[in-house]
Amino acid sequence: MTVTPLSGSRLRRMARRSAAAPAAAGERCDLCGTPIEARHRHLLDVGERELRCTCRACALLFDRAAAAQGTLRLVGDRRLAIADLALDDAAWEELRVPVDIVFFVDDSREGRVRAYYPSPMGATESLLGLGAWSDLVAANPVLGSLDPDVEALLVNRVRGARGHWIVPIDECHALVGLIRMHWRGFTGGREVWEELGRFFAELDRRARPAGRTTEGR
């Protein structure tokens, strides 16, 4: 099931920003229409699961959980690299994720965690073993600090990698956009794997080290 409601053009813009590309000409705040910089904050429309670009002034208005009665949530900028996450191959199998890149989000509407993986068609939901997720949180208390809706646990196990990060949800949308923009053929092609390498290297550069028992805020 494709779940991200973002348009293809917006996903492509987010993917380019992730690659530190120049500002897109004419991009404006979705609330007040003010021109905005390439790297800007986002608001999540919790009901529609839609990300809205926002200028600094509008972001400040929503920098409280109670703003807009919680219908619009400001996406934060916390990035934690969790090198010692307790997630061995057996625990991974219990989660029943069919691919090696996935992000987990606490969905406040559903009252449960959902797992999505990026694909050439968009973000696709994977049926998650909720008991296995509870076990994962018990083994890694840092996961209890995930901000519902606007933060995610991002896991990369491609080609032997073991990368785990807590990231803003817009980082996951940028990853989805990157794959949609660069995937070619059945296996993706060399370009998409090079872009993924750059994406995760940049994420590592921006993330603060954290431990599985360290909240890191």
Overview of this structure, please?
The relative contact order is 0.19. α1 packs across α5 (169-182) and α5 runs antiparallel to α6 (189-206). Helices cover 30% and strands 24% of the residues. By secondary structure, it is of the alpha+beta class. A hairpin with a 4-residue loop joins β5 (101-107) and β6 (112-119).
Structural class: alpha+beta
The overall pLDDT, averaged over residues, is: 86
Listing every helix as H and every strand as E from the N terminus to the C terminus, the arrangement reads HEEHEEHEEEHEEHHE
Query: What shape does the CA trace take?
Result: globular
How much helicity do the residues have?
25-40%
End-to-end gap:
33 Å
Pfam families: DUF5947
Question: What's the short story on this structure?
Answer:
The protein has 217 residues and is of the alpha+beta class. It has helices at residues 8-18, 56-61, 89-95, 130-139, 169-182, 189-206, and strands at residues 41-45, 50-54, 72-74, 80-82, 101-107, 112-119, 122-126, 151-156, 163-168, 208-210.
What tags apply to this protein structure?
seven-stranded mixed sheet; alpha+beta; three-stranded antiparallel sheet
